[in-house]
Amino acid sequence: METWLRELRFSLRALTKARGFSAIAILTLALGIGASTAIFSVVDAVLLRALPYPNPQQIMRVWERTPNGHRVQFADPNFDDFRAQNHTFAHLAEYAELPRSVSGGSEPVRVSIAEITGGFFETLGVAPFRGRSFAPEEQRFRGAPAAIVSYHYWQRYLGGATDLSRFHLSMEGAVYPVIGVMPEGFDFPAGVAVWIPREFPLDQSRSAHNWNCIGRVREGITVAQARANLSAIARRIKDQYGKDVDLSDAAVLPLADAMVGDVRTALVTLLAAVGLLLLVACANVAGLLLARNSARSKELAVRVALGAGRGRLVQQFLAESFSLSFVGGVLGILFATWAVRILPAILPANLPRQQGISINTPVLLFALAATMAVAVSLGLFAAWRAAHGDLQEALTSGSRSFAGSGASQRFRGFVVTGEIAATLVILIGAALLGRSFWRLLETSPGFRQQNLITMQFLPPNPPGHVMMDESDVARQVHLVEEISNRLRTIPGVESLGLAGAMPVAEGDNLAEGDFLILNGQKPPANFEDFGRLAQNRSQVGHALYCVAGEAYFRALGVSLIRGRMFGDQDNWSSPHVALISESLARERWPNQDPIGQIIEFGNMDGILKPLTIVGIAGDVRARGLDHGPSGVIYVDYRQRGFNINSQPTFLVRSAAPLGEIVPSARSVFRDLAPDAPVKFSTFTDEMGGWLADRRFLLLLVSLFSAAALVLAAVGIYGVVAFSVTRRTQEIGIRMALGAQRRDVLRLVVGEGARLALSGVAIGMAASFGITRLLSSLLFGVSATDPATFAGVAALLSFVALLASYIPARRAMQLDPNRALHYE
Question: How far apart are CA 295 and CA 474, in angstroms?
Fold first, then answer.
């Protein structure tokens, strides 16, 4: 220990004297360790940390699986069979998330609620911390109403009151006494403010996939065993009901994995990028250590000649690397702490479990492990290179190289080549993500996005209504038309449309399902008839469902290809009509005219009135810019109303900024729908939210790429500059014998060019394999796009040549007389 302390004191004195070297090495390590720690804090919170429930490994997400392999939500009768017949789950529960206007607290508010079946909280192993859970008589259709609220809702809108009995929440015309408050931090489903018992009656259709499902497996049951048990039940259901069910199998996944979903690929990509950045940083410091040790060759040789063994030299190098790494690690943790504070501003809103991102004990242990690994690796690397030196040569030679100038220089070149290769991989990944993002931004959604303001609100519905009737539709039509007429009078409003969902921006906001092509057949009288007719797949199509008015198409600039738009003659009493998108017309009626075709889409809104296709509208990318044009069936809101599959969204075209429109619009809603909170936004903002996950990944990878590029340039500069220093006498002799400055330039820059070309070649080969992992994150560009690879290779080569030119220019200005006397 005394020896180690002495070596540490000596290394600190030596590093203090070499301030330039120490500063560059410490900042380089701080950048690598800090970036790695910050990203690991995200990975730890989202991917690695256990869910905050008792025995979270037992909680599963369960789906039905269709014959084509797609995972879908549960149909009620299938769920009942799964729950009754399985022997691997202690609990199974259904739930559904719905946006609702909730009043009864300090102010009306638009929130997400969850309707749940019995066993939901038991599955998660969590109970209200205040009040009670639902009683059996409350957990059935038309049972006693009750509501449990989130901790956040309780604090903000109920004032954290201890007496819950005085609070009654109003939703959709029904009143729910507040009976409990969930613990702080409970957030499942994510963002839900209120939980209520399931309101809807049991749906007897075995193909109406409307409910999410979670379950808790029994102690000792594995995921594979649970999946096999449910698969056997699925096969029995299929054998028993045949064409009445589209269930062929079951899918079971740990809830933690299901919550992460596609985010895992993005986070693993980020972690790989920051790992490469740390590798580049270490390579850079390794190159600096080699150059420093070459300059100290005589000092090290004297220490060995005076009796210092190889082990003592290893101690010295480890002490120096630990000193550098410790300071770099501390600065890196400070950098990571700062980064974690600003991450919420750039993290996508849909990133699950991001509330848990922090510099906690596991993250600090990761930072400590990274620091220790860097210190040991650099120390042993420097000691290993020093051990290959010829001590006698170092003592007698005027050379500044301890390990043999040629060998040492070649090895430094090898390190920098690896650094360039790793940098190229990061740069190509960032370039591919950047081109993909740009392609998304260039993609037209099929309508004019500029100057578009959105206003989403939830009109109150009668309690317990799932299916719309004439009175429901008339009431909704009267309300939205009153609001529309008032909104049109606001100064600055150029045009106004109304639809049941906002296209593109929210991705999955439009409902979808199968529709029937009647072809002269009698329309189904009930949903059992609908299911029977749907067994003939030649009469079935699949489309998105969108409630709209004729002004919707004008406001968005969606053209009418053929036929007519909705008109004043279209109301509840008149024959119900529909418009379809151009892509649906091509897909479902490729060789005939779809106008005049009669279809049935009542399974989407509960209104079994046939729809006559009267027009074809231009395509929009309703599912998102990274999807092709969607097949959409538009129905008139004056005929079908807004049910649980849609929520009225006013789309206002205005050159005035949002801030000038909102006050007047808010007063309109306050007068006409005081209990229906409204969400005001611009379409640009909504689109920004949809693109947030891609923008976040691109931003961080780009930052890492820029850092890696700088480090690689510094590495090349260091190697070439040291080479110029080592070859000063050689360059002087060449110039004395008649070499021109351009010859010196060619000699020095050529060395940097060789390093760059070698690193680029290795990096290109590695990138062809590694970037394929990005395929799921790319749009409109191949993972092996030649233009991207060539452009990044050219950029890195240019930076390498620029880094080589700086020491080359200094070499060109050498005085041959002074160079010949240089030692």
Answer: 88
For the record, the structure tokens of 335 come out as 């950098």
Residue 562 β-bridge partners: 616
Is the CB of residue 495 less than 8 Å from the CB of residue 554?
A: yes
| pLDDT the model gives residue 468 | 62
Contact 45, 347 (CB under 8 A): no
608-651 pLDDT, tens digit per residue, is 889 999 999 998 887 777 777 888 999 998 888 887 666 788 88
3-state secondary structure of 198: coil
> What is the enclosing helix (H) or strand (E) of 722?
helix 692-726
Rounded-to-integer distance, Cα 658 and Cα 652, Å: 10
- Which of 216-230, 276-290, 358-372 is the least confident region? 276-290
Q: Using the CB atoms, write b or e for 95-129: b if 16+ within 10 Å.
A: bbebebbbbbbeebbbbbbbbbbbbbbebbbbebe
Measured at the CA of 201, the angle between CA 69 and CA 245, to 5 degrees, comes to 25
Task: Indicate the residue type of 86.
Answer: N
3-state secondary structure of 689: helix
pLDDT at 85 over 50: yes
Please classify residue 310 by burial: count the beta carbons closer than 10 Å to its beta carbon, then call 0-12 exposed, 13-18 middle and 19+ buried: exposed
The pair of structure tokens assigned to 575 is 């024959």
When the pLDDT of each residue in the chain is averaged and rounded to a whole number, the result is: 81
CA distance linking residue 509 with residue 679, whole number of Å = 15
User: Helix, strand or coil for residue 15?
Assistant: helix
CB-based contact 439:290 (threshold 8 Å)? no
- Structure tokens that stand for 171 in this block: 């939703």
Q: What mean pLDDT do residues 675-685 have? A: 78
What does the block give as tokens for 747?
């000699």
Tell me, rounded to whole angstroms, the distance of Cα 667 from its chain centroid.
37
What three-state secondary structure class fits 483? helix
Residue type for position 115: E
C-alpha 655/C-alpha 170 separation (Å) is 37
pLDDT digits (tens, 9 = 90+) for 511-556: 778 888 988 788 888 877 787 787 777 888 888 888 998 888 988 8
